[in-house]
Every structure is written in C-alpha cells, then in structure tokens.
Amino acid sequence: MRQHVQVLIIGAGAAGSAAAYALARRGLNVRLLEQFQIGHTRGSSFGPSRIFRLAYEEPDYAGLARAALESWRSLEREAEQQLYWRTGGLDLGPAGTPSLEAVHTSLTAIDAAPERLSRRELARRYPQWRVPADWEAVYSPEAGIVSPDVTLRVLTDLARHHGAQVLEGVAALEIEPGRQPAVLTGAGTLTCDHLIVAAGAWMPRLVPQLRTSLSVTLAASSFYRPDDLAAFQPERFPVFITHDEFQAYGFPVFGLPGVKLGVDVVRPITSGDDRSFEVPAQVGEASDTFMRRFLPGALTVMERSTCLITRAPGGDFILAAHPDCPQITLASPCSGHGFKFTPLLGELLAAHALGEGHPWQLPRFGLPAQAVDTAQGGPAAAGA
Ligand SMILES: Cc1cc2nc3c(=O)[nH]c(=O)nc-3n(C[C@H](O)[C@H](O)[C@H](O)COP(=O)(O)OP(=O)(O)OC[C@H]3O[C@@H](n4cnc5c(N)ncnc54)[C@H](O)[C@@H]3O)c2cc1C
User: Most buried among 23, 209, 212, 366, by the most CB within 10 A?
Assistant: First the structure.
C-alpha cells in the first residue's frame, strides 16, 4: 500500500511533535510517525521537567530563548493550559568564572535584568544552599520549568485537532530521498512532498550522513526527598546550574515530591537501540556528593532515571536540509539543552519545510562539515 501526504514527520519527540502542530495549524496535510508511544521513556523528551532559561553564554541562544518564551505563551493560549512555570534561575560558581561572567554579560545584553548575588545575599534569599566562601550567583528572573510530559501530550492533541494523523507504534524503516521522498514502514510505503526527520538518538541510523557528526550518550537524573518539602517548592527554590569542575543542574519539587538533579560527569557513548537503563555508578556518586556538599536539606534518594542525549558539534542543533535532498529537513535539536525551545523549533521546522525564511534560523544550525563531506564522498565517508 502506498499513500501520499504533504508533510511526513518521523519521530514524535519534542521536535517532531512541535513541527506536526505548527504545520497542521497552518492547514497542511501532516502525518507524524512514532515508533513507540507518545511520551515513552526511551528517548529524550519525557519526564516532569526541563529547565527554561535565558542564561546562555552565547547571546544568540539567549535571544532564541527569549523568542521561545513568546512561542510558549502562544501555545499556552491555544492549549488553555499552563506550560511554563516561572521559578527564577541561579547560575552559581566561583566568582569570576569566565562562563559565569559570560552568562551575566549575555543576560545584560538582552535586558534580562540579571542580579549578582554575593554568597551572603544567596544565603539570605536561598538558605537551602551551602556554597564555598569564594562563590557567587547570577539570578535571572525569567528562568523556569517546562514539562516534556505535559508538552508532548498538548502538542500531539493539538496537532490531531488541526487534522494531523499521529501514528504510534509505527517505525520508519528506511528513507528514500527524491523529489517526493518515500518512507518505508511495516505498514507500507508513504510518500510526501516534504519529509522531516526528527528521530533523536535514532538519527544516525536513519541518516547515515550524520553518523560522524552526532554522538549519543547516556545521561541520568536523581530525585531527592527534602526534609522540609515547603523549602524546595518552586516559589522558594529556583532552577539552577553550576559552573564548577563539572556542570550540575537542578529543579525545585515539581511533578514529583523531590528535588531533581543532573550532573555532567561522564558521557557513556551509546545508541537508541543498544542503550542501557542503568544509571552509571559515577553519576550516582557525584550526584549524592553534590547534594551533601551544597544542598544538605535534601539527601534521601527517591529514584534515578536515564535519558539519551544526542549531541551535534559545538553543542549546537541541526535544523537543515538533507545533504542529498532539499525535500528532507533534518532536525536534531538536543545537545542536552533543546527542550526549552520546543514550540519555536516547531515554527522553525515548519518554515524550513515550506521553503520560507525565519528570523531565528541561525547559521549555527546548518549541517556540520563532516556530514557534507560524507554526502560528497569525502574522508568521513571512507570511515563510515
Ligand atoms: C537528562 C536530560 C536532561 C535535559 N535537560 C534539559 C533541560 O533542562 N532543558 C532543555 O532545554 N533541554 C534539556 N534536555 C534536552 C531535551 O530534552 C532535548 O533537546 C529534546 O527532548 C530532544 O527532542 P527530540 O525530539 O530531538 O528527540 P526525542 O525526544 O528523542 O524524539 C525522537 C523521537 O523519534 C522517535 N523515532 C526514532 N526513530 C524512529 C523511527 N525510525 N520511526 C519512528 N519514530 C522514530 C523516537 O522514538 C522518539 O520518540 C535534556 C535532555 C536529557 C536527556
């Protein structure tokens, strides 16, 4: 059986769901394929919380996040539901750390009203924290929480409402580039005017040209039950990121009665199909040590979970045409920080698929050089 649609999208994670919503809302005939179920826990877009922040070292990402906030607000209006919870954010580290300074500079550049907090001021406002004498913090008021669990449900419901067909349990087995790209599935072949591949950790399998540029690694989060639950509620405990020997990031109590912590200490290489669900011992140990040292009011481990991060070179995103086929858009907006942009990414992908420009289609989202070399049969292809 062969069917044709205007836009076919592979992958109902953050990127694919947002693209399906944006395109269906514009009246396109859209089909979204998901190999598992919406909200499954094998990829990157699940769980109660992701950090929303403007606090980037790079001013263009800070500006992108501000534009994304507008997109979250319009999605909230259409969904008639809250999707962004403002908590404020803390970037913490030894005073003078270059990345901390850069965050302050870029927040100032976009008029985001950052506040420098001395250790003493930090202790007064947020007594949950114990930091060394030489530390300070940068507070940013617009940081907060967005939720993969809630957002994916809203985006796919709205996409369906606007006429998109969302098929769960249907895997794309093979892609055939062409003027009308074709996708082979277990239930037959689909052709389309435009294909968006937003397959997260499975991108390298579906698009071999990306194998040398994308790396898939296992990450983990830990949840800690606080002694005083009230002290770690979103109104009293901002989301945070540390700038120290390794990056740690965390959340107030939200969705689960525990403080959530992630630490970037090891990056075990894996793939969408061969990954483990076991939390690496080093991650568990570093997380517990971090809590004992900095947040001693929340030490009881409630649960830990694993998640996949697909990184593009430089920690950037790929939102670009397939090297061999302009009718295919490749979307890999992860690198461990993509969720906060979700509704804006949908708009960017819709514009790309329709051949339109978009003010936030940044040059840094282009295809990495290795992928172009591979497509042209250069050195990277020889190793593939
Ligand atoms: C531990 C962790 C913490 C993070 N923290 C933050 C944060 O605080 N703030 C932030 O902004 N971002 C954060 N991120 C990043 C963010 O979660 C990702 O940017 C985002 O979820 C990526 O979504 P995606 O759609 O690209 O990929 P995925 O969510 O993985 O979606 C890809 C989908 O494609 C499907 N698929 C793959 N192959 C096929 C196929 N052949 N056929 C059909 N379907 C297929 C998969 O099943 C999957 O559902 C974090 C990520 C992790 C893992």
Answer: 23
Percentage of the chain surpassing pLDDT 70?
97
Do residue 306 and residue 229 come from a single domain? yes
Do 122 and 207 fall into the same domain? no
Domain that holds residue 163: 2-45+148-214+314-383
Residues with CB under 6 A from ligand 1: 10-16, 33-36, 43-45, 50-51, 171-172, 198-202, 206, 219, 221, 262, 307-309, 333-334, 336-340
Closest by CA position to 287, among listed 318, 252, 250, 316: 250
pLDDT of residue 6: 98
Pair 283, 240 in one domain: yes
- Phi, psi dihedrals of residue 316, rounded to the nearest 5°: -90, -175
Whether residue 377 is predicted with pLDDT greater than 60 in this model: the reply is no
Report the C-alpha gap between 380 and 369 in whole angstroms: 10
Q: Where residue 159 sits, what CATH number does that domain have?
A: 3.50.50.60
241 shares its domain with 334: no
Look at residue 8 and tell me if it is in a domain: yes
Atom from ligand 1 closest to the CA of residue 40: 49
Q: Is residue 67 part of a domain?
A: no
Quick one: CA dihedral 74, 78, 80, 85, positive or negative?
Answer: negative
Q: 353 and 221: one domain?
A: no
Pairing of strands 2-10, 30-34: parallel
Whether residue 35 is predicted with pLDDT greater than 60 in this model: the reply is yes
Report the chain's mean pLDDT, rounded to a whole number.
95
Q: CB under 8 Å to 250, separation ≥6 — which residues? A: 239, 240, 259, 260, 261, 262, 295
Which two three-digit tokens encode residue 365?
């989202």
**Structurally, how many domains does the chain consist of?**
2
Residue 254 alpha carbon to ligand 1 centre in Å: 20
